[in-house]
Sequence to fold (182 residues):
Amino acid sequence: VQVLTSEFLSDIGALTMTDASDYMSGITNVGDQDQTNDNNTYQVRGFRQNKPYRNGIREPSPSMLFDSATMDRVEVLKGPSSLLAGVAEPGGMLNSISKLPRPKREATVTVRGDNWGMRRGEIDTSLPLTKRLATRLVWVRQSGDAWQQFAWANRTVLYGALSYKLMQNTRLTSNIEYIDYL
Fold:
C-alpha cells in the first residue's frame, strides 16, 4: 500500500491524479498523456487499471476528472486486490479519498501560478454547524495557458461535503462535486 497525503500533494503542486501518479512507484500513465486533461488510464505494476476508485467505489468511466483540491489522499493498493474491492485488475487499484468536514472552523485560501501563464485560486472552508453536523466547501478557479502550445487549462471546481456524527466512531457523510473543464 502506498499513500499520498493532501500535504504531500500540496507540496509537489499536484493539481490532478496524473500529477500525483508521477510520484507513485509502479504506476505509469498511459493513454493520451495529457497532463492538463487528466483523461488518462494507468498501469499498476504492468497491468492496465481502466477505472480508478473514489472513496472505495469504482468510477463509471476512466475519463473521470480529479482535482487535488477535493482529495484528502490517494491510496494505491498494489497486487491482486479483488478480495477487498470486488473484481479488480491484478496489478492493483488507485483510490482517491475525498476531503471530509473537520470538527473545527477552518478556512484556507491558496493562489498559484506558473511560468506558462496559468493562474489558480482555491478556497477551502470547513464549518461545524452543530456538535454532530459539519460541512466543508471547496471552490477552485483555474485559467490560463498550459505547458503545451495552443492549450489551456481552464477549470472551475465546486465541492461540498456534509457529515453527521451518529455515534462516537460512526459518521454518515455525503458529498457532491462539480467540475467544469475547458
Observations:
- Residues 6-12 form the longest helix (7 residues).
- The CA atoms of residues 34 and 40 lie 7 Å apart.
- The chain has three helices and 13 strands.
- Residues 33-37 have pLDDT under 50 and may be disordered.
